[in-house]
């Protein structure tokens, strides 16, 4: 019977070792899974932060472009006013000369004040 007890003792030791090995393997898998989850969470957090930064960058670019368009329109309107003013001055001087020529043709005088 001693040999049977020894066999039982060694069998129970073998089972215990197998159980320990399985538990260590399961623990290692759980730790690897936890590490994978932490890595995934860091990656997700980094992706979210990158998306926020990109949104802020796009918003700044949109505002900068809007300011540039506003400034460009301001200068375009200013140039348009200058061109229209120059065209109006040219037209008024042309009409003044035409009126002066018509009066001279009719023999009437046109008073011009000289300084």
Verbal overview:
The N and C termini lie far apart (145 Å). Helices cover 91% and strands 0% of the residues. The protein is built from one helix and no strands. By secondary structure, it is mainly α. InterPro entries: CFAP141. Pfam families: CFAP141.
How is this fold's topology laid out?
Elements: H1 2-106
Keywords:
115 residues; mainly alpha; 0% strand; rod-shaped; CFAP141
Short description:
It holds the Pfam family CFAP141. InterPro entries: CFAP141. The chain is mainly α and 115 residues long.
Give me the strand/helix succession.
Answer: H
Strand content: under 5%
What oligomeric state do these chains adopt?
A: single chain
Instruction: Give start-end ranges of low-pLDDT stretches.
Output: none
Question: Number of DSSP helices?
Answer: 1
User: What form results from the Cα inertia axes?
Assistant: rod-shaped
Radius of gyration: 48 Å
Mean pLDDT: 87
Structural class: mainly alpha
Distance between the termini: 145 Å
Reported for the largest beta sheet, the result is: none
Helix content: over 70%
Q: Using DSSP, what is the number of strands?
A: 0
């Amino acid at each position: 019977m001693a040999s049977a007890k020894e066999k039982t003792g060694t069998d129970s030791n073998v089972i215990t070792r197998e159980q320990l090995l399985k538990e260590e393997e399961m623990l290692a898998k759980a730790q690897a899974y936890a590490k994978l989850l932490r890595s995934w969470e860091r990656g997700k957090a980094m992706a979210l932060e990158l998306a926020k930064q990109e949104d802020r960058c796009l918003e700044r670019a949109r505002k900068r472009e809007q300011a540039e368009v506003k400034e460009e329109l301001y200068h375009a309107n200013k140039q348009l006013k200058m061109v229209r003013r120059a065209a109006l001055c040219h037209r008024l001087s042309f009409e003044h000369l035409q009126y002066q020529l018509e009066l001279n043709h009719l023999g009437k005088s046109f008073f011009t004040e000289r300084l």
